[in-house]
Amino acid sequence: MPDPPAALRDVRVVGDPATADAVVRALRALGAGARTAGPADPAADRPSAVVLCAVPSVPIGGAGEAGGAETTEAVPDIDHELADRLFELGIPRQYCHREGAIVWMEPPALAPGDVTAAHVRARRLATTPAHRELAAHWSGAAVEEPAP
C-alpha cells in the first residue's frame, strides 16, 4: 500500500492514553505521522486529522482483566463541541473507544453532514445493555444501583 500524501500524514490522537498509543502505533504502521503530543487544543497546530479516543468505562487493567492493576492516571476529557467544530476549521476527525482489548474506530467525519459526536454517543447508548452506566460515566455521575 502506498504511503498517504505528506499533507495528510499529520494525525493528532487525543484522549485515553492507552487507547491513543495503540491507535498511534497502528496509524504509523500505515505510513501516517500520528502523534499524541501537541497543544491542549488539538486543532491549534492544524493537523491533517484528529482522532478522539474515549475513556473506557472500566480502566485498562481494572476490574474484569486478569492480573492488571487499576490505573489512577488522569485522562484528558474529549471536548465534543470542539470535535464537531473541527469541520469549520477544515480538519477531519474520527472517534475511537476501547472495550477490553479491542479498539473500535467509528466512521471518520470528513465533511459537514457526516457523523457527529451526538450520533456516536446515541449509537453507543443504543447498542449497550449498560446504557444507564455509560450515560452516567459520560456525565461524571455515579450509578446508584448495580448493573443487572
What does this structure look like?
By secondary structure, the chain is α/β, with parallel strands linked by helices. 26% of the residues lie in helices and 14% in strands. The chain has one domain (6-139). It has 4 helices and 4 strands. A 4-stranded mixed sheet has the order 1-2-3-4, with helices on one face. Helix 3 runs antiparallel to helix 4 (131-139). The longest helix is centred in the first third of the chain and has 13 residues, at 17-29. The protein is globular, with a radius of gyration of 16 Å. It starts with 10 loop residues before the first strand and ends in a 9-residue tail after the last helix.
The percent of residues in helical segments reads 25-40%
Helix-strand makeup class: alpha/beta
* Unreliable parts: 62-74
What is the topology, as strand order, of the major beta sheet? 1-2-3-4
Give the biggest sheet. Answer: 4 strands, mixed
Instruction: Write down the domain tally.
Output: 1
Number of strands: 4
State the gist of this model.
By secondary structure, this protein is α/β, with parallel strands linked by helices.
What's the SSE blueprint?
Layout: E1 11-15, H1 17-29, E2 49-53, H2 80-85, E3 93-99, E4 102-105, H3 117-127, H4 131-139
Parallel strand pairs: 1-2, 2-3
Antiparallel strand pairs: 3-4
Helix pairs in contact: 3-4
What key phrases describe this protein's structure?
148 residues; alpha/beta; four-stranded mixed sheet; 4 helices; 26% helix
